[in-house]
Amino acid sequence: MICLLLIAAGCGNQLPRPAEIEENDVCAQCKMAISEKRYAAEMVDRDGNVYKFDNLDCMVRYVSGHGLKEKAAAWFVMDSDGKQWLDPRQAFLVKSASIPGPMGSGILAVKDRATAGDLAQRFAGQVLHFEDLWSH
What we know:
Elements: H1 2-12, E1 41-45, E2 50-53, H2 56-65, E3 72-78, E4 85-86, E5 92-95, E6 107-110, H3 113-122, E7 126-128, H4 130-133
Antiparallel strand pairs: 1-2, 1-3, 3-4, 5-6, 5-7
């Protein structure tokens, strides 16, 4: 009985997780195929709905335009290598017109400041934080 209670309690406290990017997924904002995983972003709302985007800029536009920011339970952005999801509030974002991303967003996400600095120098860009994107 105790084991069942522990299992049930653990199931109720799961944090939102990112969804895998599938071959036929399209961006909720621009409706383009999410073809370059390294630019992908996702938002999970409090009801468990997952919104997928082909880039971080599309996510900010969609969420702002639909008044969803306060309803977000979790945010995810793909690391620039396309292999792991990051929390964009803890990631370093590099923005440059020289970064060839979907919809011309030009934003890459990385988990450490040193890599962000290197990319910003390489692409003549700037290092931003997630909250900086909401003021543009």
